[in-house]
Design brief:
629 residues, LRR_dom_sf, globular, 17% strand, alpha/beta, 21 helices
């Protein structure tokens, strides 16, 4: 009988490498065990284990020691020849292998706005990194996430020895824009054939040195200065970036930023494939038609494959994208339609957004944020078998928009059978109905669904407080709860239902996992995340006494299934944010007003001495054939 190592060695190399790639992301310890099977297997696992490497740098002085330590570690396993992606980051931003693929621009450190010539003061200290890059024969991507300008020695090595390596500048800024001439090294950066991606930030109210990060600069670079630039990721900031330069800076006032290269005629880039625009806060305004038109002068939208507009887009902007944007190559779309004054959608606005989503056909990934009802996007299913990832990120908490959504989600499973990732919104039931559990079961009819995040709306909307619920209340429930009457009368029954909706425990997560797992494949989801909102009654004054209960019982959960053949059906469930919750412990005793309502839901022991903090549990109305929590 063949041993396990000989069986593995007979597998096609590509299949074995795919197995290792899966294990590296989910069970890295298993890769270590595989490596001990034989020399051939060890060589293959090494190839996968060291494809992506992070090099955290504390400061310029520590560069040499940090690089030598990495080289020594890699020498034991011949790992240097396996490195394909090298990430240079601040030591404080070393977030680990599991998070290396994250594209979270908001987590990037601010650039230190020193004079452009300051780069030469630390260039010598970075030569060990340059020497390291020269040795990485398989290098394809260099991720630069440090707050100071990329040193000349690194750029020179890329040009001479790593022409195939793509440079991702995730803290991009030019320091010499206010000087008579652009710094030669900074000009070399923006015209580098290695430059593949720019992550940049600018202050909306640009003044002083913050103008060095203006949108116009990035647009000029995208418009032709960088010959191979394919990705631009942009974030609006409210506050100026850090500066170690104390020289007086001329204000650019409202004039256009001068051309980076005088006399250079730039045409819209046909190479840019990814454009992302983010705010760092809600106060950073909206996306206007004028801003999109301005981008189109520098970027040919017909070649864009990914367009992320992670801030509210005015309807005029959506209209322009639909009529003149020409995003015919688009595969990934993220947008947030903005309704004027936050009011209800007009028939015209609904039709515009529905047509816009349908016209971007066919998409593989779609993210929709903003204030809307999911029913307004019935055209989503028109993307059919192409759609793999769908995310709903509504900013509103009006519960009536998300009730009875089972039929809406059912169309996804029927018309988008290849959907693997879904982030959806579910409204908790108010009166013991089964519409909530029916929605969970619908997710189970998506045959290839693997990852599901449920944003659980637990807040009782204002329209349901008091008057419309009085017929269901007994005398106690009908009594007004004092202190919550700023916008209307909140009664004991409202608070009681609120507690029921907010109570999300581990058993609830287990039940939802079972209901949402694909029925046809007889498998469980790879990952389920349940994220309930923690807000209070909509438009009703918060009450600190009630808040103490909610902070304790309203919990987020993540359930993940094991990947090993010997662990089929095993699931690990963890509470998200547990440490934060424990750092703010719930009160041992409840206020009498709150306690009498709490005990109407969860009576506790007969002697009345049980601890309310352990007496609560979730409630979920489900059909008789599905069991109970």
């Amino acid at each position: 009988m063949e041993n396990s190592s000989s069986i593995l060695e007979k597998l096609p190399t590509e299949i074995f490498l795919q197995i290792c790639e899966l294990l590296v992301d989910t069970h890295p310890a298993s890769v270590h065990y595989l490596a001990s099977a034989s020399k051939k297997i060890r060589n293959l696992t090494t190839t996968v284990s060291f494809r992506n490497v992070t090099l955290p740098i504390a400061n310029h002085v520590s560069v040499d020691e940090t690089v030598h330590r990495l080289v020594d570690d890699m020498a034991r396993v011949d790992g240097l020849v396996c490195i394909r992606t090298l990430r240079l980051c601040q030591a404080s931003h070393d977030i680990g292998i599991a998070e290396q693929a994250s594209r979270e621009i908001r987590s990037m450190p601010d650039c230190i706005m020193q004079p452009a010539e300051a780069v030469w003061s630390y260039n010598e200290a970075w030569k060990p990194v340059a020497d390291l890059l020269r040795q990485l024969s398989a290098l394809t991507d260099l991720l630069y996430e440090l707050p100071h300008q990329v040193p000349p020695c690194i750029l020179d090595i890329l040009h001479q020895y790593q022409p195939q390596c793509r440079l991702h500048l995730r803290t991009f800024a030019l320091r010499s824009l206010d000087q008579p001439e652009l710094d030669k090294h900074e000009l070399a950066i923006i015209t580098s054939p290695n430059l593949h991606a720019i992550w940049s930030a600018y202050v909306q109210q640009d003044n002083g040195r913050a103008a060095n990060n203006s949108q116009q600069v990035v647009q000029q670079i995208a418009g032709g200065l960088a010959p191979n630039l394919q990705e631009v990721c942009f974030i609006r900031k409210r506050h100026p970036l850090r500066s170690n330069d104390r020289r007086p800076i001329k204000s650019p006032e409202s004039q256009e930023v001068r051309s980076l290269v005088e006399g250079c005629h730039l045409s819209p880039s046909t190479r840019l494939e990814r454009l992302e625009i983010y705010p760092d806060a809600e106060e950073c305004g909206v996306l206007t038609k004028e801003e999109l038109v301005n981008w189109s002068r520098h970027v040919d939208f017909t070649h864009l494959q990914t367009l992320v507009m992670d801030l509210p887009a005015e309807m005029h902007a959506v209209q322009w994208l639909k009529d003149e944007g020409n995003t015919t190559s688009l595969k990934v779309l993220n947008f947030q339609p903005r309704i004027i004054d936050g009011g209800p959608w007009s028939v015209k606005e609904k039709a515009l957004c529905r047509t816009f989503v349908h016209a971007r056909h066919p998409l593989s990934e779609l993210t929709i944020g903003g204030t809307y009802s999911l029913r307004d996007f019935g055209s989503i299913t028109s993307h059919g078998v192409s759609l793999r990832k769908l995310i709903f990120k509504p900013t509103t908490e009006f519960g009536y928009m998300y009730r009875n959504m089972a039929s809406t989600y059912k169309n996804l499973g029927r018309n988008c059978p290849n959907l693997t990732h879904l982030e959806a919104v579910v409204q908790r039931d108010f009166k013991g109905e089964t519409t909530e559990s029916d929605t969970y079961k619908v997710f189970g009819r998506c045959p290839n669904l693997r990852r599901l995040k449920i944003n659980l709306i637990t807040t009782i909307p204002y329209y349901m407080v008091s008057q419309e619920r009085l017929e269901d209340f007994d005398d106690f429930d009908s009594e007004v709860f004092p202190g919550l009457d700023r916008y209307g009368q909140v009664r004991h029954g409202d608070v009681k239902q609120w507690f029921i909706n907010k109570a999300i425990d581990e058993d609830f997560a287990k039940t939802v996992l079972r209901l949402t797992s694909p029925v046809q494949s007889n498998q469980i989801l790879e990952r389920l995340e349940i994220a309930p909102d923690t807000s209070t009654f909509e438009h009703v004054l918060d009450d600190t006494l009630i808040r103490g209960v909610v902070n304790h019982i309203c919990r987020s959960w993540v359930a993940e299934s094991a990947v090993g053949d010997d662990q089929t059906g095993q699931v690990t469930i963890q509470e998200l944010g547990k440490e934060i919750r424990k750092s703010q412990p719930a009160p041992k005793e409840l206020d009498p007003r709150v306690k009498q309502i709490f005990r109407r839901v969860w009576p506790g022991s007969n002697d009345g001495k049980s601890d309310w903090r352990t007496d609560w549990h979730s409630q979920l109305a489900i059909g008789e054939d599905d069991g109970q929590t």
